[in-house]
Amino acid sequence: MPMSLGSMLYNKTGAWRNIRPVVDNSNCIQCGICWKFCPDVAIYIENEFPVVDLDYCKGCGICAEECPSKCIAMVEEEK
Question: How far apart are the C-alpha atoms of 37 and 33, rounded to whole Å?
Fold first, then answer.
């Protein structure tokens, strides 16, 4: 299936973020809320835990805000 220019595979947006999410899997309750609320489809579930694809994450912090177990921390991006 050919991809259109509007496809997320062509539009990596993570290069301009100032902060990024870091997931602490030891506190994760595997609810999937972070995945559900991510507006950029930058979170996927692997082995029942969330993984952030930083190529697509804009650093909006919605995942950290919505996480009921507060296992996602927003940290300053390294230069």
Answer: 6
Give the pLDDT of residue 1.
Answer: 46
For residue 45, give the CATH number of its domain: 3.30.70.20
Number of domains, the chain? 1
Interior CA angle at 20 toward 17 and 24, to 5°? 170
- CB contact at 8 A, 64 and 23: no
- Block mean pLDDT (10 aa), the chain, length 79: 54 80 96 95 94 93 97 91
Give 34's DSSP letter: H
Question: What separation in angstroms does the CA of 8 have from each of 44, 49, 70, 73?
Answer: 14, 22, 28, 25
- Which domain range does residue 41 map to? 20-76
